Amino acid sequence: MTEARAPITPWNPSRSATARVKNPLPVPDCCPNCGSPVFIDSNSCIYGREHGEWPWAVMCTGCDSYVGLHPFTGIPLGTLATPEIRAARKTAKAAFNPLWEGDGAQMTRTAAYGWLAAALGIANVEECHIAWFGVDQCRAVVAAIKARGAAPAHRHTCHWPGCERAVPPAMWGCSPHWFAIPKPLRDDIWRTYRPGQEISKTPSEAYVAAARAVQHWIAQQQKGKTA
Ligand SMILES: [Zn+2]
Ligand SMILES: [Zn+2]
To answer: In whole angstroms, what is the distance from residue 3 CA to residue 92 CA?
Structure first.
């Protein structure tokens, strides 16, 4: 047996990459947006030069719709999208991805998609892909994220300077830091705390003063250490 050396293309895709795509979408016979025939070609037709590690796309012959392919496969990443749909998907991703991606992540990617599917009423999480969504579903993503309350990008962390530990919104800080604070100061925080202030962003002046007193106390401790 000689090894096949034909280059990997959408017509000669990587078998392992193809096998990894769960719930593959077929290349459609025609554009879902205008009904014209579609074709696969280099995405340089779109961007002017090849873009990305797998520079292919499914494009429409009749309108400005296209979609990329899963790397090293001939499987579309989603449905062909018009400029309007592409913009809506971009907005939806920008709202949704911080839930599981980056420093402010609140959960794993799998958990985030599970949550999104439930929020949008999609029974099968394997069918919950923003690249499959139209404009209305993308708007529903943004609305669902907003309805979660505080923006995921603004995860609540311990107020101790330099401590990045995530804590529930109603709590001042992580327990080691919280209990490092003298009890009278802690009592002041609780006494002035108004339930829901972390959502309304309107703490009382007394709370702000108590929180400032805590920061002042911490600063004094740290000065003491370095002196
Ligand atoms: Zn079209
Ligand atoms: Zn802390």
So the answer is: 43
Q: What pLDDT, on the 0 to 100 scale, is given for residue 96?
A: 95
Task: Give the CA distances from residue 75 to residues 19, 62, 67, 90, in Å, rounded to whole numbers and listed in that order.
Answer: 11, 21, 10, 20
> 88: buried, middle or exposed (CB in 10 Å: 19+, 13-18, 0-12)?
buried
Distance 66 CA to ligand 1 centre (A): 8
Starting from the CA of residue 159, give the closest ligand: 2
Q: Which residues lie near ion ligand 2 (Cβ < 5 Å)?
A: 158, 160, 163, 165, 173-174, 177
Round to whole Å and give the CA distance between 129 and 184. Answer: 51
Give residue 196's region: left, alpha or beta (phi > 0; psi -120 to 50): left
Number of the ligand closest to the Cα of 218: 2
Higher pLDDT residue, 149 or 150? 149
Ligand lying nearest the CA atom of residue 172: 2
The residues spanned by each domain of the chain are 1-80, 82-153, 156-226
61 CA to centre of ligand 2 in angstroms: 57
- Give residue 151's pLDDT: 47
- Digit-coded pLDDT (tens) for 39-69: 999 999 888 899 899 999 999 999 999 999 9
pLDDT in tens, 78-87: 999 999 999 9
